Amino acid sequence: MNDSSFTSSALPEASALYHARLAAYRTRTAAPNRLARVMCTHLAAAVCDILTGSTFQGPFDARWLELAFFPSGSVAVSGRYWTHAGECRDLNDVGDTYGMGEWADELGAWNFGGWRPLCTIRAVQEDGVFIYGLDLVRAAELPQDPSESAEVAERS
Q1: What are the DSSP calls for 71-139, one per residue?
Q2: Among 31, 58, 132, 146, which residue has the fewest nearby CB atoms (within 10 Å)?
Q3: What CA–CA distance (Å, rounded) separates 20 from 29?
Q4: Cα(66)–Cα(79) distance, integer angstroms
Q5: 100-155: pLDDT as tens digits
């Protein structure tokens, strides 16, 4: 029973399929760290929003934001921050930090490689909690989307 109306689809060469699979694996592997990096940018924007009264203009002296990394693998924001001069202050004295938890909830052990490079360790508590200072200057730079750079390369 040979149906002559059926034609097979043109399939990619084996090497092209292999390289496409590797690229897909790299994208899947990088996704958690990219998410963490973008959430750090959200945290930097939230600090700026709180300190400038949602105007994003005026004095903004925050340099590091305190993150607590728990043995469970979760991350939380305390509201404490340090100025460029090294003075420790609390965002709760200035405005509502409630929304920052939404961004911190997206950070954890599963994407440690995305947010940890933006941090300096400040302390390790007796209960095993690591206290980090998120570098807000570095975090404020939104990372480039790898799919956008791939699209640009394809158009070139």
Answers
A1: TTSBEEEEEEEEETT--EEEGGGTS--TTHHHHHTT-BGGGHHHHGGGEEEEEE-TTS-EEEEEEHHHH
A2: 58
A3: 14
A4: 7
A5: 888 999 999 999 999 999 999 999 999 999 999 999 999 988 877 766 555 444 54
Round to whole Å and give the CA distance between 100 and 44: 10
Dihedral over alpha carbons 137, 142, 144, 145 (to 10 degrees): 150
pLDDT in tens, 7-63: 777 888 889 888 888 888 888 888 999 999 999 999 998 898 888 877 767 667 899
Amino acid at 146: P
Residue 59 and residue 36: Cα distance in Å, rounded? Answer: 27
Say if residue 40 is exposed, middle or buried (CB neighbours under 10 Å; 0-12, 13-18, 19+): buried
Cα–Cα nearest to 82, from 66, 70, 71, 98: 66
